[in-house]
Amino acid sequence: MDAFYVSVEVQRRPELRELPVVVAGSGPRAVVTTASYEARRFGIFSATPAERARRLCPDAVFIPPDFDLYRARSRDVMAVLCEHVERVEVVGLDEAYLDLSSFDRPKAAARRVKAAVRERAGLGCSIGIGPNKLVAKVASDAEKPDGFVVLSREQACERFAAASPGLIPGIGPKTVERLRQGGIETLGQLANASGEALASAFGDRLGPHLARLARFEDDRSIETVRIAKSESRETTFDADLRGLDALEPVLDRLSQQLCETLARQNRKGRTIGIKVRLDDFSTHTRARTREEPTNDLQVVRSTARDLLRRFDPQRPVRLLGVRVAGLDEAATAAGPGAPATVDQLELAL
DNA sequence: TCTGGGGTCCTAGGACCC
DNA sequence: TCTGGGGTCCTAGGACCC
Length: 349
Prior knowledge:
Helix content is 43%, strand content 19%. The chain is α+β, with helices and mostly antiparallel strands. Helix 4 packs antiparallel against helix 5 (106-121). The radius of gyration is 22 Å and the shape is globular. The structure holds a DNA duplex.
């Protein structure tokens, strides 16, 4: 989806069309969730601190996020996709892979999907078509917004040979920097780099993996059912908190929110963890695995408290989180071969 | 410009078992 | 006596994605 959250906001406030619009929280530490393409011209992107965004474009319209609304619109869009295509893999609220391999004319099918999303949901999207997920994903990003790009693997290699390795999803800023230090600044160079050099610099698994990515090789299949493995609640404080007395009530509240959600969905997990980010931005996690899965508030709360007391942060804390992992699959697993339904998508979301 | 919230996957080391 | 070779589970940190 193109600038999904912004597009949904513009839908209910059409007067904002073609204006710089920014969806962002209001706190002192908020970051931008989505910026309209007009706002991006001012240098405002996802994860830009909201404070900085205001300075970059004081005239932009700032809107607090309304995730319930975005989830509802996302369900609408995904329902349209499922009406056109049997196998759909939902990736977050605004993205999906469609298996077009059963169509005689996949491009025509994708055109119909694009038109239907605009007609039925009133939202624009960009589509990429390729022989695997990696090519399709990069193609979909290549001409946003309102893009429609079809590429073979070889065409993708050619078209992006001069681009930064960071173009590839899975190659992030750290890896880009390490590659650069090794004299590799483009995808073309990475694709032609010696396997031995990459293996010695990045290890026997990551090295070859990077080379495959640069050649746009990808054999991942489309997974129509995703089962969550963990769930968490976390919060960043407007001002750092100091000491267990200040932190414990927050930890209790997060535990309660998390357990309510898990109980409502009848999901339980064996591992209970906390996350603590200190004022120096270092992040620390502590976890404990139990014999039996649980979503019981008493258990989660007391475990989280104990983990926090044992960690006993000696510096001001800026973020605190609670997590339950090792979730059982019983509650959300669909039968083998079960068709993707909107209900399942809701669970996935 | 000091950096959200919710996730996934990978790695490395240690415990433990056969 | 100075010590194998798996395999699994768990913890903690980190990179990365939307």
